[in-house]
Structures are given as C-alpha cells and as structure tokens.
Amino acid sequence: MLADIRDASLRTRGLERIAWARRSMPVLNAIVGELDLTGRTVGLVLVLEPKTANLALTLRDAGADVIVTCPASETADDVAAALVSEGVAVLARSDASPERDRAFALRMLREGLDVLADDGSRVVRLAHAENLLGGLIGAAEETTSGLRPLRVMADRGELRIPVLAVNDARSKYLFDNVHGTGQSCVMAALDLTGLQLAGAVCVVAGYGYVGQGVARYARALGARVVVTEVEPFAALRAHHEGYEVRPLLDACPDADLVFSATGVAHTVTREHLRALRPGAVVAVAGGVPDEVEAGDVPAGVTVLAEGECVNCAAAEGNPIEIMDLSLAVQALAVDHLVRRGSTMAPAVHLLPEELDERVARLKLRALGIGLDTPSARQREFLGRGL
Amino acid sequence: MSDGHRRAQAAIQTILRLTNLLMAGKRVAVIGDEPELAARLRAMGAQTLLADPAAALRGHRVLAEDEAVALADLVIGATEAHLPLLRDGAILIPAVPPAGPPEAGEPPEAGEPYGTDGEPSGTGEPYGADGEPPAGPSGTGGEPSGTGGVLAGLPGVRVRDGITGYRLGPGREVFVLDMSC
Ligand SMILES: NC(=O)c1ccc[n+]([C@@H]2O[C@H](COP(=O)([O-])OP(=O)(O)OC[C@H]3O[C@@H](n4cnc5c(N)ncnc54)[C@H](O)[C@@H]3O)[C@@H](O)[C@H]2O)c1
C-alpha cells in the first residue's frame, strides 16, 4: 500500500481525534450505505484532519481504494498515521517541501484515479498541465477559490473532465463558508494571539459568505467590526447589517485585527500593512497565495500562519458538524461522478438539487427538527399564480 | 465587569479548541451567574438555557435548572448532582475558570468546583453535598491530561486531549472538558 507519512507512531492520537469527530457526523453516517464505489480508486486532496479522515474512511467503507494527499501546511501527521493504520493510502507529511508535495500529487495521479475530490483545484489543474488525466471520470471541487480557475478553463475550452461544484451546494456554502469558517477563523486568531475581542476593532475585508461569518462571530465576541468591499451590493448589505463600511486603507489605522475574507490575491497589500499600528494582527480566512502580500511585514505587525488560511493552517479547521455537511456533499458528489460522470460534459456542474436537499434533510432529522408541509389550500394558492 | 468578558471569551475559546464543535445551534445550560458568557454564547447562535427569569428579557430561554440540564448539549457549571439528568453525549464544563494564566503548582483545595486549576472562582457548586473534594480528572493536579479521572465513583476514559468520557449506563456517555488545558 502507498504510504509516505512522517511518523506512524502518532496513530493512537489520530484515531482518538477521528473517533471524536465521528460522533458528531450523523449525515456522513447516514449516507454510507447509499454509496457504491466498489473497485473504484478515489483520490482525496482535502485538508488532512480528523473530519476529512472520516470521509476517507466512508469512501473506503463504500468499497473504494482511497488515496489521500495534502500539502504540508494542512497535514496533521497523527491523522495521516491513523489513516494508514486503517488501510488508506496516504502521501502527506507536515515536513514536506513544496516540491515533495507536488511529487505526492503526481504519484497519486499516476496510480490511475477514477474520481478526484480536490480542494483549491490544485491537483485537477496539475493533472491537466501534466497530461495525467488518464481515465479520470471527473472531479469534485470543495472551494470557491478552486472553482474560479476551473470556470475560466471551461470558458476557454481547456477543461477536459466534468467537475462537480461541491462548494456551490447550499448545504455546503450556507454553513461551511459562513458559520464554520467564521467561527473557526475568529477562534484560531484569538488562540494564536491572546487578543481580547471585547472592545477591539476588527476589520473584515470582503463580505461574501466567509466575510459575513467572520464579521458575525467577531461581533458576537464584542468586537466593533468594520467591513471593506469592492462590490456595491455586498457593501450595502454589510451597512444594513450594522457594520461600518470603509475602504481598507482608511480602516487600517484603527484595526486591532484584520481578516482577509476575499479569496483574491493582493487584498492586503504592503501599503495596507504599513498603515496598521504596532500590535495589529492580520489573518487570512480566504486562503489563496498572496492574499496578504508576502515580504517585509512592518515591525510590530503580525501576519498569522504565514498568511495561509488561519483555521486550516494553525487550528483544527472548520467545526465537526459543519464538515459533516460539506463532506457528505463530497461523498455524494464522488458517488454521482462514478454513476453519471461519463455522460457529463467537461464543464463545471452543480450537484443535483435532490442530493443537496437530501443532505439538508438528513441533518434536520439528526437534529430532531420538524418542518411544516404546505397544505392543500396553500398549494392551490401557489398554483393559481395570483 | 470586564473580567466577566475576559472569562467569557477564554471559556469559549477553550471549549471550542478542545471539542472542535460548532457553537451555533447548541443548547447550552449556563448554571451560576455568568451573564457575559451567556450573552456571548447567545450571540454566537447557541440556544442558551438559564434559570433566572430575568434572562428571558435578554433572549435566553428560561427553564428550571434541572430541566435545562436535561435538555442541554453543553452544561456550563455542571456538578455531580446533575449527572442523573444528563442526555447521552452531553458535554460538561465544570466551572468557568478565572481569566489569566493559571497559578502553577497550587493543589486544588477541598470544596472547590471540580476541574478548576486551583483558584477559587466564586461561582458554581462544589461536587458532593458534603463538601468533600471531588476526585478530579487528570489535569486538575498537573498530571498529563486525560489519563482518566473519576467522577461520582465512575472511571473516566481518555477521549482525546482535554476530554474525558464517563459511561453513566448502557448507551449513556457524557464528556467532561478539562478547562485547564
Ligand atoms: N478557510 C476556510 O476554511 C474556507 C472555507 C470556505 C471558503 N474559503 C475561501 O474563502 C474565500 C471567500 O469565499 P466566499 O465563499 O466568501 O466567496 P464570495 O465570493 O462569496 O466572497 C468574496 C467577497 O470578497 C469581495 N472582494 C473581492 N476583492 C475584494 C477586495 N480587494 N476588498 C474587499 N472585498 C473584496 C467580493 O466582492 C465578495 O463579496 C474563498 O477563497 C474561499 O475558497 C475558506
């Protein structure tokens, strides 16, 4: 079995963390029996931590040969060791160089994948560039920032496989991007700095799904939140939700804590960094390279986790219950590609509505939350069109 | 006043770091007088359950303490007396530790809330009506965390760093957080 990990003896701690996460993943538990991946080889390129490990185990239980790889900064060595002890192939170590990370991804592709679940579309793009698509039926992509380049490729006619936009499933982005990322990025920044949020000024660049969540959780803990935007509707929305909206350069001198939540490179430039006061802290909740410009950071200013997304690189990632939803979508996407991928055009596709809704309903059931159903009179009203 | 905010943030940080769970949507019973903590939790989307009738005016759900504990996913300020009431999977936060760095080396004193690091917190009830010091889980006395403590005579099982599990009966297990982690 394929394995290149840092320390197999860390297995027990990894298994403990995987088991603790499993307790709060009812949706993934409920769908295991619905998947049939017998004889398929599935590549996983997700942040390697206890929740995604449960996705790997779920796909294995559904009959797949699973190969996991992950860049060094997002690899938990104990979880890698635990997965190997459970018979999952893992190529990931926290001490790998960027060259080695790339070699891991190439090695995974050369194994001959049926389906790939990617994060940031790094490996989908690598497979195109290196002509290693082989018999790949299709890929599922987890993030906003990974889908953007794939859509550009599709527009140019360069995308050669169907891609399911896991990120764009409502049971993913309405909860993962907003609540999961919001809570976990704010808490990671506090854990790393010891900053007291009550009375502090927190600047959030970008008021998309992630920015809304970061702003909400920072405010919940007592911060005064300032939002910056480039898009008029997002800016107005932030204004109506009670946040101050200002240009970033204007907000920097007041900031104790700055989050970039845009997923766009060069959001926080050197000029912005210079406008911060000593003691200010900058964190990334988006997660593309150069979101905070690398290079000389002014004295007294701290960029957390070397500018990588702070919840994934310097904490345990998104909360368990949220990843239950996102990873259930991933599992259904992988299964859907196996069943239907060969009939799908090489383009970025949404997950079929019924699969997305199934995840939401399973979560509601696990929570014991009941819904009303429209009455006959309501259905008649709605059907009248008046 | 500001100490309450500090304690609240510190407690929320520790709970979320130890568990990796989401606060939004959790039913959280807050036992004892922790208004800042309750407000923060509510703002994070928790359904806070409090016994003080005036808390209803601040958006909390008011329930008798026993009912709150029986409904809760998380119990803050939990004592041994609550054990028979807890749901399967409930998470117990024994008492909100004081803010600031713990004073190392100070042994816990008799009658203190279970699980603190030795500083009296002034809130929460000590375990055991007779004022006997509870046999704390590891972490209370500086041993490596999670080697298993004892709760109401039950042996604890290490779950992961800072979390000890106690089996209360068939199909009923609760988890105690070591807030000094
Ligand atoms: N850390 C995590 O765990 C995690 C989880 C989910 C998503 N993400 C990432 O977070 C990023 C944002 O995701 P999203 O779903 O919120 O996307 P989104 O498209 O909904 O939001 C991005 C927002 O940023 C704004 N923006 C762009 N450039 C800006 C600038 N220079 N200044 C201010 N605002 C600017 C846009 O107008 C938009 O409103 C993506 O990179 C995504 O992949 C990270």
Automatic annotation (TrEMBL), chain A:
Cofactors (names): NAD(+)
Biological process terms in GO annotation: one-carbon metabolic process; S-adenosylmethionine cycle
Superkingdom field: Bacteria
Keyword Metal-binding: no
Record PANTHER family: ADENOSYLHOMOCYSTEINASE
GO MF term set: adenosylhomocysteinase activity
Domain S-adenosyl-L-homocysteine hydrolase NAD binding: 177-317
GO CC, one annotated term: cytosol
NAD keyword on record: yes
Record key words, sorted: NAD, One-carbon metabolism
Protein name listed in UniProt: Adenosylhomocysteinase
InterPro entries: Adenosylhomocyst_ase-like_sf (IPR042172), Adenosylhomocysteinase-like (IPR000043), Ado_hCys_hydrolase_NAD-bd (IPR015878), NAD(P)-bd_dom_sf (IPR036291)
Family: Belongs to the adenosylhomocysteinase family.
From TrEMBL, chain B:
S-adenosyl-L-homocysteine hydrolase NAD binding domain span: 3-179
InterPro entries registered for this protein in UniProt: Ado_hCys_hydrolase_NAD-bd, NAD(P)-bd_dom_sf
Biased composition range(s): Gly residues: 138-151
Segments traversing the membrane: none
Region of interest (Disordered), residue spans: 97-153
SUPFAM superfamilies: NAD(P)-binding Rossmann-fold domains
Protein name: S-adenosyl-L-homocysteine hydrolase NAD binding domain-containing protein
Source lineage: Bacteria, Bacillati, Actinomycetota, Actinomycetes, Streptosporangiales
